[in-house]
Amino acid sequence: MTLTSMGPANRIARTPETHPLTWRLREDAEPVWLDEYRQKDGYVAARKALTELAQADIVQQVKDSGLKGRGGAGFPTGVKWGLMPADESMNIRYLLCNADEMEPNTWKDRLLMEQLPHLLVEGMLISARALKAYRGYIFLRGEYVDAARNLNRAIAEAKEAGLLGKNILGSGFDFELFVHTGAGRYICGEETALINSLEGRRANPRAKPPFPAAVGVWGKPTCVNNVETLCNVPAIVGNGVDWYKSLARPGSEDMGTKLMGFSGKVKNPGVWELPFGLPARELFEDYAGGMRDGFTLKCWQPGGAGTGFLLPEHLDAAMYAAGIGKVGTRMGTGLAMAVDDSVNMVSLLRNMEEFFARESCGWCTPCRDGLPWSVKILRALERGEGRAEDLETLLGLVNFLGPGKTFCAHAPGAVEPLGSAIKYFRSEFEAGVKPVADSRVSLESGRPVAAPMV
């Protein structure tokens, strides 16, 4: 897992003042266990939250900081926390960590869980205190075997040190934390599908309302946050709102830092903690090192397979939600993918849509039937056996499976890259249309006239 490169921009040292998520990382990429984590100011913020701050004050700090969800949706974390009921009689509450990182081209949460497991434990402890949640679950992608092992060890260390369990740090607050490994389903990234899976049910999204804050896991108030989101909480509580806001580049509407990265045929693929608002070109050129020799950037996705494709000229867009929105797509997870000029877009989209079709939970008709339909058409185009009307059918599916027309956000995310690929590279799709024999007959030869390719 690459964190630094030889590029000049990456020789800047990670410090607590500039890199709240990653400054504790070891150069040898080994996990930071409890003793070392405490030497690096670990659980100082947790002690402050449990012994000095009121629960409402923690919620207000997170709200004022502008922290937004880092899983892709970008919903304000403090607002989400504020949806939990204030009624003290509802004393059974749950905090769930969404660690089901199955977005293709995304690996940021894995880095934190494998190398800084105590940062997530501390973030969940503080968050649970703020939410009055007595039990937490880390819903982990089943393939993340190393992350599961390291998280379980970190939880055991924290329990032995009195940082989990009963009467933590003498505060009177009790919190139990468990790792729950899922079966490896992309749909579990949707919070209510995650809740269903945790309960032992089929991983289908639930109708909302009621929202999980009112009726969540086992019918109790529940808050679901992403790994990276929760890992930001200790630094906010420890260093304050003004400091956290100062981390972003001027002009950014999103606060703090973000784990960003680049994959594909770049010279230095990796993930780095960077301030919101930096130009995508800086991420691509100074950190990822640009394209490998012999390859040219054809297009790129800013934040996982469920975001639209952008062209090289869009690299001047700023990496924050509204900045990427201005050029026509979403920032998503912030882990970008470079597509080189050797890649055929029809084949790339066929591969993507096969993944999304397979991962559909099958609950609603547009997603269940529409995504396999797109795969069937793309396979035909890839073989050069497409029909003239196939492109309009694909664009129709992009519309019918768009935002607000399906039960959850799975299908809209699946068709967003398809729509953008047709927009920018239509000729590659048209090249897959099979020529149709013309019904006219040549006067010279008496044979049918081949119709031009549509």
Automatic annotation (TrEMBL):
**What cofactor requirement does the entry state?**
FMN; [4Fe-4S] cluster
Q: Which PROSITE patterns match?
A: COMPLEX1_51K_1, COMPLEX1_51K_2
From which residue to which does any coiled coil extend? none
Q: Which SMART domains match?
A: NADH_4Fe-4S
Cite the InterPro entries for this sequence.
Answer: NADH-UbQ_OxRdtase_51kDa_CS, NADH-UbQ_OxRdtase_suF, Nuo51_FMN-bd, Nuo51_FMN-bd_sf, Nuop51_4Fe4S-bd, Nuop51_4Fe4S-bd_sf
Domain NADH-ubiquinone oxidoreductase 51kDa subunit iron-sulphur binding intervals: 346-391
**What one GO molecular function would you report for this record?**
FMN binding
**EC number(s) recorded for this UniProt protein:** 7.1.1.-
> What residue range is the signal peptide?
none
Q: Which UniProt keywords apply?
A: 4Fe-4S, Flavoprotein, FMN, Iron, Iron-sulfur, Metal-binding, NAD, Oxidoreductase, Quinone, Translocase
Catalytic activity from the UniProt record? a quinone + NADH + 5 H(+)(in) = a quinol + NAD(+) + 4 H(+)(out)
The record, for NCBIfam families, names: nuoF_fam, PRK11278.1, PRK13596.1
Q: How does it assemble?
A: Composed of 13 different subunits. Subunits NuoCD, E, F, and G constitute the peripheral sector of the complex.
Its family remark reads:
Belongs to the complex I 51 kDa subunit family.
Q: What does this protein do?
A: NDH-1 shuttles electrons from NADH, via FMN and iron-sulfur (Fe-S) centers, to quinones in the respiratory chain.
> What protein is this chain from?
NADH-quinone oxidoreductase subunit F
From the broadest rank down, the organism's phylogenetic lineage runs: Bacteria, Pseudomonadati, Pseudomonadota, Gammaproteobacteria, Pseudomonadales
